[in-house]
Amino acid sequence: MGDDGPWLVAGLGNPGREYAGNRHNVGFLVVDLLASRVAGKFGRSKRARADVAEGRLGYGGPKLILLKPLTYMNLSGGPVAALGQFFKVPVDRVIAVHDELDLPYGQVRVKRGGGEGGHNGLRSMSKSLGSKEYARVRFGIGRPPGRQDPADYVLSDFGSAERKELDFLVDRAADVAEAVVLEGVEWAQNKYHGS
Q: Does the keyword section mention Translocase (predicted)?
């Protein structure tokens, strides 16, 4: 951990105001919060279709490159890979922050590698990076009610009961992402998975 290479934290979502409150866009919310914590300001990247912010985690801490792809979810991997190459970030220092149907709302989990669980953003990242061995901060959104199509569900906004907890949960997900950078995936799992 000791070296000073940057970390790339990709919040997954869809660009555009109409998607801003969607469950699928929770990755954007988390990286927005991380940017405010490191006093980074998002601006349009010249090297990839993404909004990018940079900052350091704590005084003299690791550099974070935060990005929100502007390609729509199913093409997220292109900007992540392009910026990863430009900033020379190895795959094991890439973190994807994304919504997760397979976790109940309110659970935040972290893992490295594994499958994509049908998540088009992750599938695109794995393909573009040529690896699945990046870390994922998984933000539980639960399964759709009744017979609602998961594709419609992820593109719907959080409900009013969910919104009451949303800021707290986004804050927690940002804490988890920071813990991965500072202490590693296993440490973050031990600290955050129990609760």
A: no
CATH number of 7-192: 3.40.50.1470
Q: Rounded CA gap, 2 and 16, in Å?
A: 38
Known binding residue 59? Answer is: no
Beta bridge mates, 68: 51
Joined tokens for residue 10 = 């990709």
Specify whether the CB–CB gap between 68 and 83 falls below 8 A: no
List the beta bridge partners of residue 110.
137
Q: How far apart are CA 137 and CA 72, in angstroms?
A: 19
105 marked ligand binding residue: no
Structure confidence by residue, pLDDT tens digits, 106-132: 899 999 999 998 999 999 999 999 999
Q: Is 98 a catalytic residue?
A: no
The answer to whether 19 is annotated as binding is yes
Question: Phi/psi zone of residue 132: left (φ > 0), alpha (ψ -120 to 50 degrees), beta?
Answer: alpha
Residue 1: per-residue pLDDT: 44
pLDDT digits (tens, 9 = 90+) for 57-96: 988 899 999 999 999 999 999 999 999 999 999 999 999 9
Alpha helices, DSSP H, located in the chain: 26-37, 77-86, 120-129, 150-154, 160-183, 185-192
Domain borders along the chain are 7-192
Per-residue tokens: 107: 């659970």
